[in-house]
Amino acid sequence: MILILLGFYVACSFMLALFGIPSFFLMIFVAKFLFVYIGEVMSKDQRPPVAGPVFNQLVHFRKLFDYQASLAQKYITYRMILPSHSEIYTADPVNVEYILKTNFTNYGKGEYHCDIMKDLFGDGIFAVDGEKWRHQRKLASYEFSTKVLRDFSTSVFQDNAAKLVLKVSMVAAAKQMMDLQDMLMKSTLDSIFKVGFGVDLNSLSGSDVFGNQFIKAFDDSNVIIKRFLNLGLEAALKHNIKVIDSFIFELIRCKREQMKNKELDRGKEDILSRFLLESKKDPKKMNDQYLRDIILSFLIAGKDTSADTLTWFFYMLCKHPLVQEKVVLEVREATKAQINISADEFAKKITEKALDNMQYLHAALTETLRLYPAVPMDGKHSEEDDILPDGFKVKKGDGMCYMAYAMGRMRCIWGEDAGEFRPERWLENGVFQPESPFKFTAFQAGPRICLGKEFAYRQMKILAAVLVNFFKFKLVDERKEARYRTMFTLHMDQGLHLYAFPRL
Ligand code: HEM
């Protein structure tokens, strides 16, 4: 030990003399980290196995979720070491149930995660725990279950699906290829904007310059996953947040004016108007900043997740043409629509009842989410020392991630064909059978399960049904394997390039 210390002292003096103070601090950091790392690996405590230093994730950053999946196949629950604490990763449904439900209060977002998200989300539902979360959850659950919001959002989805058909028709008629991902992102942004604010953004048609700025600001903010992983500096978020904020505050101001002039009543359908009416009861708490945070969270939640899922869904349909044909058959049977009707007319035929009858489509979307969950991993933070159901110890301050992407590929959960895309696994006698949310974790589970799940399925089913009814899709390059870009959401790298052929 004395020799090691002496060696370290000599090395420090040498580095200090040779390279100066920065190298010296770097060396101190490396030494501290090695000390912690070796201590943790050698520890006899019953802690999850160490799969490496957290920096390994930087090495595998481009295929981060596959790297995690390969570690999960080996360990199911494992640990990565940081100088200050451990990050625990699990793909074990028993542990997932424990952290998301049984001991929910111990595994909040934590100060660290909240701080990272604060820039963008403020005090929005994603970034808060405790009383602030409970208040928004209660309010939003109520609003999301109202018939007014449901009917309004369905008609918005129908209108935007028909607009998307027109856009695809133009590209198909010119026999050009298209980036369907880009179109879906714009279409879902238009929908969530209309449902969120009652405003037409028209980003799909590209007629709104602001719409394009807004999308860019949104997309760039997604890069903050790097901060989450402690892997580097965030991109210049400030400018993007300014763009987003100025628009939202202006909208709130206009709506407040309308409210003063009694133009806004309880029948108003968009989410902002409904929250504004609610804010009358407690104007101090629900001030403009709070409303901005709530609404922005919904926008972010609703925009990328549905569009990313639909992108992977169409990719899967192209890779599995038989599934594509089965979906078309079911959609036509469920809508009982005649051929040669317009996209608008067809979209209106997708009623609640028709949606209920699209069980195979529901299964195919769920199968897509199993393999390509829009939120591929999700991090919590342990408030206190704890013991997981598998016996592994958790220390206060540890990070705790469940890995939806890895879980969707675990043979011990889905069987030997876990890697195969097979919608039939979700069906019994043609009827969709849900799986435990602690195994199928794409929407999270427990008290914080996704609030927009039903909303998202309705949007995705309407868009998918309308598109497959009018077009047959083929990949531009059949042999190319799509890859994701490592972000909060599972975005396809470089887009989804397809040809669309009109269906007769
Ligand atoms: C395929 C589509 C979607 C998927 C896969 C999905 C998935 C998720 C996941 C994994 C979470 C947990 C995030 C976390 O706590 O860190 C979440 C939360 C949430 N989602 Fe979704 N989501 C989808 C669509 C939507 C839509 C369309 C909306 C609303 C318009 C929405 C609203 C929310 C809200 C408000 C929360 C926060 C719930 C809470 O913390 O209590 N989601 N979603």
From TrEMBL:
**Matching Pfam families:** p450
Q: Which UniProt keywords apply?
A: Heme, Iron, Membrane, Metal-binding, Monooxygenase, Oxidoreductase, Transmembrane, Transmembrane helix
Transmembrane parts of this sequence: 6-38
Cofactor dependency = heme
Q: Looking at the keywords, is Iron present?
A: yes
Note the CDD domains from the entry: CYP86A
Query: Which GO molecular function annotations are given, in alphabetical order?
Result: heme binding; iron ion binding; monooxygenase activity; oxidoreductase activity, acting on paired donors, with incorporation or reduction of molecular oxygen
Cross-referenced InterPro entries: Cyt_P450 (IPR001128), Cyt_P450_E_grp-I (IPR002401), Cyt_P450_sf (IPR036396)
Binding sites annotated in the UniProt record for heme: 450
Task: Note the PANTHER family from the entry.
Answer: CYTOCHROME P450
Q: Which family does the record assign?
A: Belongs to the cytochrome P450 family.
Q: What is this protein's name?
A: Cytochrome P450 704C1-like
Q: Which organism is it from?
A: Vitis rotundifolia
